[in-house]
Amino acid sequence: MSRTFFTSDHHFGHKNIIDFESRPFSGVEEMNAAMIESWNSVVAKEDKVFHLGDFSFLNRDKTRAIVERLHGYKVLILGNHDRGRSRGWWLDAGFDEVSEHPIVYQGFFFLSHEPMYMNKHMPYVNVHGHIHGQKYEGKSYFNVSVEHWEYKPVPFEQIRDSVAADEEQ
Fold this sequence. Notes:
The protein is α/β, with parallel strands linked by helices. It is built from five helices and nine strands. A five-stranded mixed β-sheet has the order 4-3-2-1-9. It has a four-stranded mixed β-sheet with strand order 5-6-7-8, with no helix packed on it.
């Protein structure tokens, strides 16, 4: 049975992100290899992964080489660092689907790169990235940036159960 996962902000090939976000890697090659291994440790080939942006700073061939190594059917929602490249560029780099806009998942979860404005009366949850190690307060936001999740994609069930637990409080 396939599962669905969410993740964001890998910044493959981005040397400066190691210092910017205090990532525990000595260099880009180690970071890239560790993140591929972390992804594949939880995602099976038949699973679906929504990547919520800022995937790679590498050229198309190097990006494609990484995408090909990652398990799952991969959907990219373009992040601020991805938008300089066309939707076709990302499809050619190996993504199965690419969206330039947020996606509504199961009628309740807004999937976006940047956090969206959510007032306390909106009965939805914004699954997002972009803010890396920071966290928005409140039950309306769920940050899937890799820094919060040991560089592993987050299973949908974990997000759903976390939101349900917040509502019970």
